[in-house]
Amino acid sequence: MGGWSKRDVTRLRTAMTSQGRGMEEISEEIRHLTGCSRLAAVRMALGWSQPEVVERYAAQATGSMMDQPLLSRLEAFPAAGARAPQATQIIALATIYGTTPLRLLDPNALDRLDEHERAVLIRCNTAFTGPLSTAGDSALQASVSAGALPVLGPVSITSTTMPGQASRPPLTTVAGHLERQVEMAARRALRFGVTAEGSNVGPETLDQLRAEVARLAIAYPQQPLPTLLADLVDLQDVTFRLLEGRQRPAETTDLYLLAGALCGMLAKASHDLGDPHSAMTQARTAHVCADNAGHPGLQAWTRGLQSMIAYWAGWPHEAVRYAQLGDEPATAATGTSSVWLPAQEARAWAVLGDHAKAEAAISQANAARDGVRGDELDELGGIMTFPRPRQLYYAADARVWLPGAEDQAAQAAEEAITAYEAADELERSFSDEAGARADQALARVNSGDLDGAAHALRPVLDLPPDHRIGGIVTSVMRVHQALRATGYRTVPLARDTQQEIESYSQLRAAALPPGR
């Protein structure tokens, strides 16, 4: 162990624990000082001997064999003479150690695994996502203070339930769980962003990561956020860990592009959960990644993202500023991010009441659409691209703010709804469709068509709670506010619609459990 004795490790572990440091920090320090693998470092951070781990493994991982010589060879991987671990072994050990599978392997070790084993680990890793090292830190405290080994429930390797799920303590509130996940990811993004501004990965790992990012990008506009957040947080962590290592320049560029996309999706998730400050932290880190990747499309996309967050947070001047910061990369971009930027700027100008600049930005977005040739973001698809139906919705969302443009807003909203209904499945977005319907309802309220407004809003109010993200609730509340006008105060339909909106907004995505 690089000259370090067991006594030295014990002394280090005790000192760091007394400082309030967690298992992950202690294991990384042990790995750095001794040169051992992550798998060995985590065991030593917990203060467990190999025989103790073997005993635990036999009791917990029924149907899977482990002895001390095998554990020694697994802990030595990928050194010469070591043995490559199987996914089931790493999953079992992660459960015993109270951590996640990918935290037991450094990127180089992960890349040297069999392709199938690596894919299983990356997939299964998301089942362990939660507050960092909670179980491991509890075990560490127990082992240091009492010397006892905490008892874990049995784990069946053949079970269809992912190990680690059942053993997690329930959270006091589900909303708090989602908020803590977003805050945790934002802190991680901030730490990485600071580092980034100042080959451990191969083509197989890159392909796997790219496929996972594309899967999440496509799923984001179509599936409830609680089902995706854990995967996003964990994949971001994997990508950051890879970037913190060494790789060839071309691979670094690809990793920065993927990291930027993941930070962008987590920025959108933070925004959807009503946390604009965490959203901006993620968005800034996404822009750092875009700059390091040298990708004009991602640079423009992240500026559009920052503008969108500011728009919904009620900061229209900031929204305009961010959109204009993206003008230069948007000019060089070949993908649909060059369309998103002026479309988003139009909404900000409309909130500020500048009719002429809002319409000019809408026209600029239409002109940019004609020059789109596609890029890597469009290949990822989903939330990373800006299809024509979404552009129509943005035009409606801009015009609904402009006095005297009610008919134009209603027409644009109708065009957006029709386009979404006719669009390819991969271009559908439940949130943007809901936004277009809410804009249509608002335009009808403003023009005096209360029955038409209630009809337009009905599909939005029928959305299940796990689809009620921040932007949708805000759009619906605009209709509620418009119904407060003097002419509607005594109208029963207006009062009934307001009451339904109030009930609707009280149960939203942030109040639901992840994985639902």
Quick summary:
The protein is an all-alpha fold. The chain has helices spanning 6-18, 23-34, 38-46, 50-60, 68-76, 87-97, 107-111, 115-125, 134-145, 174-197, 203-219, 229-243, 249-272, 276-293, 296-313, 316-325, 327-332, 337-351, 355-370, 376-380, 388-399, 406-422, 430-446, 450-461, 470-482, 492-505; strands at 61-62, 155-156. The longest helix is centred in the middle third of the chain and has 24 residues, at 174-197.
Would you write up a description of this structure?
The chain has 516 residues and is mainly α. It is built from 26 helices and 2 strands. It has a two-stranded parallel ribbon. The C terminus is likely disordered.
Question: What labels describe this entry?
Answer:
single chain, 516 residues, mainly alpha, 26 helices, 2 strands, 1% strand, disordered C terminus
Question: How is the topology of this model organized?
Answer:
Layout lengths: L5 H13 L4 H12 L3 H9 L3 H11 E2 L5 H9 L10 H11 L9 H5 L3 H11 L8 H12 L9 E2 L17 H24 L5 H17 L9 H15 L5 H24 L3 H18 L2 H18 L2 H10 L1 H6 L4 H15 L3 H16 L5 H5 L7 H12 L6 H17 L7 H17 L3 H12 L8 H13 L9 H14 L11
Parallel strand pairs: 1-2
Helix pairs in contact: 2-3, 6-8, 10-12, 10-13, 10-14, 11-12, 11-13, 12-13, 13-14, 13-15, 14-15, 15-16, 15-18, 16-18, 18-19, 18-21, 19-21, 21-22, 21-23, 22-23, 23-24, 23-25, 24-26, 25-26
The overall strand count is 2
Q: Biggest β-sheet, characterized?
A: 2 strands, parallel
Helical run tally: 26
Please identify the structural class as seen in this structure.
Answer: mainly alpha
Summarize the amount of helix as a percent range.
55-70%
| SSE run | HHHHEHHHHHEHHHHHHHHHHHHHHHHH
Mean pLDDT: 81
Portion of residues in beta strands equals under 5%
Terminal Cα separation, in Å?
Answer: 45 Å
The gross shape turns out to be elongated
Spatial strand order of the main sheet: 1-2
Spans of at least 5 consecutive residues whose pLDDT stays below 50 are 130-135, 142-175, 510-516
**Overall radius of gyration:** 26 Å
